[in-house]
């Protein structure tokens, strides 16, 4: 279910929120489904609540990559297939331009605080549910 959400930074666009589940773990994900919102991502944010993340919705399946330019928080990113299955998870350090890529074509990327997936025992093959509620990327 999509609900209206507010960004933690005034200069960032207001993004809708979607509730996702990783097993028994609830995630409030801001949905970045446009080219503009995907480019801004988590830039300039200084805090993210433990249950909050950002879900990047891509318009096509591809080996998408993420980087951390102007991103101040250490994050983990899970690349997901079209059904929400985790393909791979990469840990990313703040203010770097190192590419972190899906190991095979992905439709989504879910960013959470660094170590969030590992601390919950989540890895490749695990399914994130709620993906079916998402708009298509543009």
Strand and helix layout:
Layout: E1 2-4, E2 16-22, E3 25-32, H1 35-40, E4 52-62, E5 65-66, E6 75-80, E7 86-92, E8 100-101, E9 106-113, H2 116-119
Parallel strand pairs: 3-4
Antiparallel strand pairs: 1-2, 2-3, 4-9, 5-8, 6-7, 6-9
Order of helices and strands: EEEHEEEEEEH
| Biggest sheet strand line-up | 1-2-3-4-9-6-7
Class based on secondary structure composition and strand pairing: mainly beta
Mean pLDDT: 89
Uncertain ranges? 1-10
Radius of gyration: 13 Å
What does this entry look like structurally?
This protein has 2 helices and 9 strands. It has helices at 35-40, 116-119, and strands at 2-4, 16-22, 25-32, 52-62, 65-66, 75-80, 86-92, 100-101, 106-113. The strands form 2 sheets. The protein has a 7-stranded mixed beta sheet with strand order 1-2-3-4-9-6-7. Strands 5-8 form a two-stranded antiparallel sheet. The two termini are 19 Å apart.
Write out key terms for the chains shown.
7% helix, disordered N terminus, mainly beta
Q: Quick gist of this model?
A:
The chain is mainly beta and 138 residues long.
